[in-house]
Design goal:
This protein has 129 residues and is mostly beta strands. 0% of the residues lie in helices and 45% in strands. The strands form two sheets. Strands 2-10-9-4-5-6 form a six-stranded mixed beta sheet, with no helix packed on it. Strands 1-3-8-7 form a four-stranded antiparallel beta sheet, with no helix packed on it. The termini are far apart.
C-alpha cells in the first residue's frame, strides 16, 4: 500500500525554522524517484493549497510566491523521503502540512484532493509568539 507520511511539525515562534519530512512507504526502491512530491498546507478555515513541489529526474523545484526565499524543498530518493526546510516562519504559515505525489508537479498550487495518488496524515505547524 503506497503512502507518504508527513512529519516534523511543531510549535515555533515567528522567525523560527522547521524541517518537515515526507517518508514514502510501499514503493519499490527505484520507483520513488519517478514521482513528483508536493507539499500542501491547509490553513485554519481554508482549503488545502499547494506550497511547493519537486519534480522527478534532477528535481526541479517550484514554490508559491509567499514562501519563495524562505522554504526549500528537497528529496533523497535513496531514502524515499522528501523534505521541506521552512525558515523565517510567519504566523500565516500555520496549518496542517501534507505531502502527496504524482507523475509531475503540474497543478500542484491548487492543492486539489485528486492531485495526489494518496494522502496520509498531515503534520501540524503552528507559528505563534
Amino acid at each position: 500500500d503506497v503512502q507518504l507520511q508527513a512529519s516534523g511539525g511543531g510549535l515555533v515562534q515567528p522567525g523560527g525554522s522547521l524541517r518537515l519530512s515526507c517518508e514514502a512507504s510501499g514503493f519499490a526502491t527505484d520507483d520513488f524517484e519517478d514521482y513528483a512530491v508536493g507539499w500542501f498546507r491547509q490553513a485554519p478555515g481554508r482549503e488545502r493549497e499547494g506550497v511547493s513541489c519537486i519534480s522527478t529526474g534532477v528535481g526541479s523545484s517550484y514554490y508559491r510566491d509567499w514562501v519563495k526565499g524562505r522554504f526549500t524543498i528537497s528529496r533523497d530518493n535513496g531514502k524515499r523521503t522528501a523534505y521541506l526546510q521552512m525558515n523565517s516562519l510567519k504566523p500565516e504559515d500555520t496549518g496542517i502540512y501534507y505531502c502527496g505525489f504524482r507523475r509531475t508537479c503540474t497543478g500542484y498550487p491548487d492543492g486539489d484532493y485528486y492531485w495526489s495518488l494518496r494522502w496520509g496524515q498531515g503534520t501540524q505547524v503552528t507559528v505563534s509568539s
